[in-house]
Each structure stands twice: as C-alpha cells, then as structure tokens.
Design a protein that fits this description.
The chain is built from 8 helices and 13 strands. Helix 2 runs parallel beside helix 3. The two termini are 27 Å apart. The structure holds S-adenosylmethionine (SAM). The site of S-adenosylmethionine (SAM) has 19 residues, from loops. Belongs to the RNA methyltransferase RsmE family.
Length: 240
C-alpha cells in the first residue's frame, strides 16, 4: 500500500487535511481516487490506514509498525565532497539511523548552501517512506566539529579512526549488551571523518569529550562508505 509522510499538525479528530503537494502526489502521481486507501505516517512512529476523501483523508485506524532499530543511533558525519552526503542520508535512513549530525571538520572541503538542509530532509523522508520506517530520522543543520563534539550528553560515544590499533566497533558493541538492548535507554553517537580523515587535534578533542576510538576493519573505507558500514554493523548486531 502507498505511504506518505504527513505532519502531525495536519490531523484533527479523525481527519487529515492534505496539502496541495500531497493531493497532487496521491491523485496525479499515484493515480489514487476518492475512496482509495493509503498509509499516512507522521514520521514520529505512528502510521494510520487512511481513506481519500477529496482534499482530506479519513483516518480508519492506527497500524502497528515495528521497523525501528531497538537502539537510537546518531551519526556525526564530517561532510564529504560533492553529493556524497545525500547517499549517506539515503542509505543510513534505510538502515535505521535516528539522527544525522553533519559537521564541518578541519578537512571538510564542502561548503553546503542553505538549501541543502531542506534537500537532505526530503531525501530522509522519501527513504523512510520507501523503507517502511515508522520514523523519519532527524537531519540537523551543519555546524562546526568543535561545537558538535561537546553536545552529546548521556550518549555512548565512538569516533571511527581509519588507522591505528583501535578496537573494532563490533567488538565494542558486543561488550555492551545493555546498549544494544536499549535497557538503559542510552543512545549511541558515532563520528566518521571526511575524505582527508580527522586531524590529530580533532581526535584528541573527541577523546577528551568521552568518545572512544574504533576501527571498522583493516581496509580504508571511503568517507561515504564508513557511515553505511557503521549502520550495517549496528542493524546486524541489534536485530539478529
Ligand atoms: N585519509 C584518511 C587516513 O588516511 O586516515 C582516511 C579517511 S577515510 C577516507 C574517511 C573516514 O572514514 C575516516 O576519517 C574514518 O572516520 C572512516 N574510516 C574509513 N575507514 C575506516 C576504518 N577502517 N576504520 C575506522 N574508520 C574508518
């Protein structure tokens, strides 16, 4: 069944007031007609079976969705070159990320324009619809590394470091079953660098702020690949 993301403010009693964009998508793109059913998702965990009624939709009943990871993961990603971040948003949304915090590190080359955030949010919404997620991940506005790194309290924190002898992320997570089962309600934040990696200074600041250095294996992954590997490892360990 077709799904669209709506804003919870659009719901009053049992009626969803559809925006003209949503009407266009449902009637013209999906070719649904009055009386047809679709799923409305509020992006915060709720899905409703709904029925088209001209410019509104009637809520028939709430649906149970259990497609979220048991653990809330924030990726702190130093922005890669070109459109690489769009790929990261799309793939990591499919893999269950809760929040992505783009950062500008010393070796970040990209200077994102202000319209980029809206585009990234749209990509996250579409990927959440497509992958049947209950929630749309939050995409934060890009900020400087030094600002972001101090902002995570009550998180289990890791920074991916491409070289050296850091323990593997998988090994660290296996030793933290409470985190994986979410029994302490503690979120995880994992930082990955841009093409040039982190500077020594950035790694030092991260460690001072409680981040533990981790490896993703023996090969050097591209800046776009690393966050996807992080999410693959986490979805594997927390869902199996
Ligand atoms: N030029 C950097 C270097 O030589 O260290 C490599 C940077 S890598 C292309 C981009 C980012 O992906 C790194 O900063 C790191 O966060 C992550 N990364 C890539 N491969 C990794 C690995 N094997 N283990 C941990 N992190 C990795």
């Amino acid at each position: 069944m077709q799904r669209i993301a709506i804003n919870p403010d659009q719901i009053k009693d049992k009626l969803i007031t559809l925006t003209s964009e949503q009407q266009h998508y449902l009637y013209r793109v999906l070719r649904l007609q009055k009386g047809d059913k679709f799923i409305a998702m509020d992006g915060m965990g709720k899905w409703w079976l709904s029925q088209l009624d001209n410019t509104d939709a009637l809520i028939l009943h709430q649906l149970t969705v259990e497609t979220e990871l048991p653990i809330s993961v924030t990726l702190m990603v130093a922005l890669p070159k070109g459109n690489g971040f769009e790929n990261i948003v799309r793939c990591c949304t499919e893999l269950g990320v809760a929040c992505i915090a783009p950062v500008i590190s010393d070796r970040t080359l990209l200077k994102p324009s202000s319209q980029k955030l809206e585009r990234w949010k749209r990509i996250a919404t579409e990927a959440a619809e497509q992958s049947e997620r209950a929630k749309v991940p939050e995409i934060l506005a890009p900020i400087a590394f030094n600002q972001s790194i101090v902002s995570f309290t009550n998180f289990e924190k890791y920074i991916c470091v491409a070289r050296g002898d850091s323990p593997h992320l998988l090994h660290c997570l296996q030793n933290q079953p409470d985190i994986i089962n979410n029994s302490h309600n503690k979120s995880v934040v994992i930082a990955t660098g841009a093409e040039g990696g982190w500077t020594e200074k950035e790694i030092e600041i991260a460690l001072q702020n409680g981040f533990k250095p981790v490896s993703l294996g023996r090969r050097i992954l591209r800046a776009v690949t690393a966050p996807i590997v992080v999410m693959s490892l986490i979805s594997g360990i927390s869902e199996v």
